[in-house]
TrEMBL record:
Keywords: Cell outer membrane, Membrane, Receptor, Signal, TonB box, Transmembrane, Transmembrane beta strand, Transport
Membrane-related topology note: Multi-pass membrane protein
Subcellular location: Cell outer membrane
GO CC annotations on file: cell outer membrane
Chain positions covered by the region annotation Disordered: 400-424
Database matches in PROSITE patterns: TONB_DEPENDENT_REC_3
Protein name (database record): TonB-dependent heme receptor A
Organism: Roseibium aggregatum
Residue span(s) of domain TonB-dependent receptor-like beta-barrel: 263-686
GO molecular function: heme transmembrane transporter activity; siderophore uptake transmembrane transporter activity
Amino acid sequence: MGLKKTGNTRLMGGVALWVLAFNCGAAAQDAVADAAPATPVAGQDQPVSQLQQIVVSAGVPKVAIDTPQAVTVLDQEAIDDLQPRSIGDVFQEIPGVTPIGSNSILGESINIRGIGEALSGDETRIIMQVDGVNKFFEQYRMGSFFSDPELYKQIEVLRGPASSTLYGAGAMGGVITFTTKDASDFLDPGDLIGGRLKTSWDSNGNGWLGSAIVAAEPVKNLELLGALNYRQSQDITDGQGNEVPDTDFSSINGLIKARYTFGENEDQSVFASYQNWSSDEDDQNYDQIAWGPDFGDVDRTVTDQTAIVGYANGFSGNDLLDVKAQFSWSDTRVEQKNQDQICAQYAPAPAPPTCYYPFGFNSEYSYETWQGKADNVATFQLGEDWMAYVTTGIDGQYQERRNPRDFGTNVRSGSGSHPEGETVNVGGYAQAELVWNDRITLIPGMRIDYSNVSVGSYVDGSGNTINLNEEKSAVGYSPKLAAMIKMSEWLGVFGSVAHTERLPSLDEVFSNYVVNDLDKELSNNFEAGVTFSFDDLIMGGDAFRLKGTAFRNNVTNYYASYWNGSTVVTEIIPKARYEGLELEASYWTESIYGSLGASLIRGNNVSTGGYMNAVPADSAFLKIGYVYRPWNLDFGWKGDFYAAQDRVGADEQETAGYVLHNLYAAWKPTDGFMADSEVRFNVDNVFDKSYRNHLSEDEGAGRSFKLSFAKKF
């Protein structure tokens, strides 16, 4: 397997589709375990590939390989395997998904299939949800999502705009859903209390994590969970031993959850949760994306909070009702103090330079959002051979975005790049899943969204507050049709057609001190794919799974924001096109396993014939491992392969290709004093390779030794 540079510098020539793959997972849901053919060993985890994981975010729960959409599920085992330092690290093995921005935890955003730019407001192009709550933050030269991977037990990535039906108009890139840990994950039937203690260390940056989780069921059917995590790191170094600026941090995050189940058949529950993530650092670069010195340093406190209350009722005995409703509050807030002055000499000496605070000496940026949603799944038996599952729902949100504020100083406060304003979104949707003999699945769906954006005030170049009080309203439609056909026990084909309309965000309605009258972004996406499922392929008890997807996404009125060398500009591209191929495969036996993922993405400005910005390089990963059953020891190698990227926009730089080698091992004793514990050891970037990911603004991390220990009680 290797990199071959041709005229367009492509990867994939050395990657064979039939490479073996598997993600050796921890205990999965019963439906998944039943699907895996390998024979379980007493007291040990059953191997399950990512293509066999249950998808819960695409309608009725189904196995990933049987979903007529490109979707990847990371369960708790897959997340732990990676030993992630930040949220961006969890997407290393997902085709078509790339972290963008920087290695700073405050500078990360996400790109899916070439959609997602560090300097643009991708609020609805990629929808990110935590336990069903939309999360998004926009501030100039900052990332868009702040959290810690230790909070989550499952992450699902649904690629492409077909997800818009259930999650909101405009999700052209896709949807990422994060599910937090539950008390039931740490309690066996009859347990009063349980939990887990965990610590980890990372040599690159001398990073450290301490985590404590306590779960309890003090009375029957009342489940409680409390989790507290602390993570810190010094600046990491690249492959040449140089420090990567502003990658040091410390953060603390906590989660509390409660669920009470009741009813004659225990089919009802009420639940509530609250989580908080915060980081408080002095003398940070204002620019967390590109480390530019132009804006100086600042003392910055970032706090992200989410609170949820909800109710669920399965209506036992009534197939037409299965209801869930929740109300949530989300607040993401950045407080900044003591920003450096920027001085410029505008007149010949001896005139003194003009000095100012470019974004306010003391300032605050905040997104505060109230959301509500309710849905129902109705089940119908249509004759002897057809089943129908109809999901209907409504959701809405009210969001206040607030400007930097003057805390009593006489210096300039505020920013013209971050106007105050309110956004109201209300949507309704319906999706049917029609299944014939478990061989044919048809999924039609429709969503209608109403959006109202109200631009309030901003601060002009002289520091004066300007009140605009202008509103823009629009309606967006997101219809789709998807199909999955199992041609035989081992062959399946699928495809989908999806249309979505993205409504302009507040940042796009107001830009460069002007209120813009913008048309909607329109996306027409086409996907087609094939699946292969073989059991007992080479030997008894082995299994092979493969899913390949081809897509083409035609976008009209695409809003592209980028740095032109002197300022950020927003360009409206009349016609843009994204297309590509994605591949996921897995093979496993009782002991040997492997996994393969690959993506090839192209982005073209159809109007000019040029390339789109923020299109990732062709990439692939290959993982090969072995499980020594007597000791329950899992170890292996993973290679990350990236091609050079020379298909770049006018303001982008080309990047070279590179290969990273990584080693890992996990030991889960089942007997003795070490029972119910796990030890993990990873070596990332074994050969200390110097590289830069095409969508990152800084050098990648050099060699890192990672060690973690966790103990359940």
